[in-house]
FGGY-family carbohydrate kinase
Amino acid sequence: MTATAATTDTTAYVGIDVGTSAVKAAAFDAGGRTLAVESRPVGLDIKDGRVEQDMDEVYGAVVDVLAAVTAAVPGPVELIGLTGQGDGVWLVDDSGRPVRPAISWMDGRAHALVDAWQESGVLASVFRRNGGAMFPGSPGPVLAWLDRHEPASLDAAAAALTCKDMVFQRLTGTRATDVSDASMPFLDPRTRTYDDEVLQALGIAHRRGLLPPVSDPAATGELASGTRIASGPYDLAACALGAGVTAPGDGLLIVGTCLASLVATRELDLTGEPAGLYISTDRTGQWLRAMPAMVGTAALDWVLRTTGVQHTEVDALLDATPPGSHGVRVLPYFAPSGERAPFVEPRLRAELTGVSLESTTADLVRATCEGIGFAARHCLDAAGLSGSLAICGGGTRSPAWMRLFAEVLGRPLRIVEGEVGARGAVLASAERHGVELDTAAWTAPTAVVEPDPERSEFYAQAYEEHLERLAGSRARARAART
């Protein structure tokens, strides 16, 4: 590794990942080994389809974890990388303080707008311009909803930011976003600047002044302590960097609250069904074709809470019932804002079928995990996966679920454990600050899971049946809009 002259054997590199339900800071040594991790939970205010967060609570958690992880390492912190949840709207004043609670990416209040735009063709026209399929919690619909129903909040705001950009402004005083966070839905992926025609189509051109400047490459700064920091990319793209997914065709599956599928590409294809988005990267002409589904560990968490099962019991339950879960099937679309990838259907809801008095808790848990696996395959197919596949996120803590994913997807999985988003944030920051790190060592998988051929063959047929059930459910959701 080549770095600055101040680097020592005890030098640490810190990544901050501002997640939806927790804020984490992870410190690494020069070889990418984890030295310390600190985490603080943050709340979600969920009511009537609306999901909001307290910005001061989130920022306070960032300050706490950064102080704690810095105190836990033996030497100096060379630099900091910042990443965080994307989408939503975080309205701030000139000093970066909140104008109102943040509206989360999980929020569903703008679903009627999305329904109307879908029917009128606005969604499709925006997708044809920038490759971003809007959903209720993305900035376009949220800003349009606020403009119609809560204009005083927009009038009082100096900027409409995303999460990490709010944190970066509070830490450094600099207001900016990067090309990854700007990708949905206002950035032209070819010019890497805001597209005024998109703003016009959404009826919010008069609010353009709220959009932060796009820093390309990502903004850098210093903390009060003098430690260097860089902002971006946001969590999906940061995880791709942290998992070593940069070669065209290679993919990443993030099994977290959001089930995000990403495939690296040099091709910008704006045809086909409007879904997902193209995330611009810090390299011009390279994108991540992203399918960030609303499906994820939140679906399994709901099932576990409802059945009274602990997370520590999941592996045993998955091993207690065979593939196919004795006929129990789950369409795992539990999010109040429906689904956003690989299709947009705000009114889609979860379905449980095939249950009888003979069904067991193990059947229900396995059927849920299988349903999430089918959703992942749907997203990865739509994103154009052709190379190797890495997998990260909280779901990797379940070896049985990882075997199930490998079987459903029919391919080997490179397991990348730990704080992958924070790791990617450090790598991005190091590049911005001219600090060379051994990327291969930092992104090496912790294990590789091979699929069982017979089970993969079974799941290939089960996947086709899943798509048929999903088509019927989507048709019912569309009918509910009329």
Summary: The radius of gyration is 21 Å.
